[in-house]
Amino acid sequence: MGLLLGLLSALIWGVAGVTGSLAARRLGPARAIAWSMALSMLAAIPLALWSGLPDRIDVRMALWILLITACMLGGLVFVYAGVRYGSISVVSPISATYGGVGAVLAIVTGEPVKALAVVALTLAVVGAFLAAKGTTEEPGAAYSNQRVAALCGAGAALLWGLQLWAGSQVQDDIGDSWLVACTRMVGVLVVTVPLAVRLQLIIGDRKALWLALAAGVGEVAGFTLYLKASVYGVAQAAVLTGQYGTVAAVIGVVVLKERLRGLQYLGIGLIVLAVIGLSLS
């Protein structure tokens, strides 16, 4: 079950990553995040209320929520800024290694792991990087600095890896739905409200709003599924959700009409082997 939830999370996060990146190109990183937070909160809060009220949110829990939210927002800023400097094919595979970061943190902090799982996790991280490499550039797009884009992807990987690990530490205390809802509410207060006060959220681009909605709802669903998958193992869940970079590559082929390179086929093959290994470990 953990394997299925992790892969489903990767699928949804992959779609959210592409739609969010496209929204950021049309709106700019700050406004794309602001709209994504506001629109996705409409889905997150009803889900949280449906699950019942949390037992309590004390100072310790509030600090964890602030840390998780800061990592989430910081990662989005890095990715959305990165796709303005470079191509999605550069940012996505590097940011997708957040699964490896989360897995390392889980192992370092004492999660037991079998040798086969370590090998499989390593293959999955390498496979995600290779499978997402390629050209997902839009026709006529000009990118100013691919090196900066790569650095932005690395920054997102570090922050999102910490977010995954931190989320798994407190989800039992507050519940999956409330943890996701609280991070969205904090995101709205920190990003959306200040921009709204300055009247910087007024836009006429309906397509961009739909992209932001898809990204926000996808992020909510993806993080929720990851939290449920992490019950079966944080390291495994973290790496499986990191396969969103592979999903982004497939979207590039099907939707953006891109071609897979030889390295991408190799990466997909490694991921298949990794999934088999994780299922056996």
Give the averaged pLDDT, no decimals: 77
H/E element sequence: HHHHHHHHHHHH
Gross morphology is: globular
Q: β content, as a range?
A: under 5%
**Cα radius of gyration in angstroms:** 18 Å
**Continuous helix count:** 12
Helix content: over 70%
Judged by helices, strands and strand pairing, the structural class is: mainly alpha
The tally of domains stands at 1
Low-confidence stretches: 136-140
Gap between N and C termini = 13 Å
Would you write up a description of this structure?
This protein has 281 residues and is mainly alpha-helical. The chain has one domain (2-280). The protein has 12 helices and no strands. The protein has helices at 2-27, 29-50, 59-85, 88-95, 98-108, 115-131, 146-174, 176-197, 206-229, 234-241, 244-254, 262-280. Helix 3 (59-85) runs antiparallel to helix 4 and helix 5 packs antiparallel against helix 10. The chain is globular, with a radius of gyration of 18 Å.
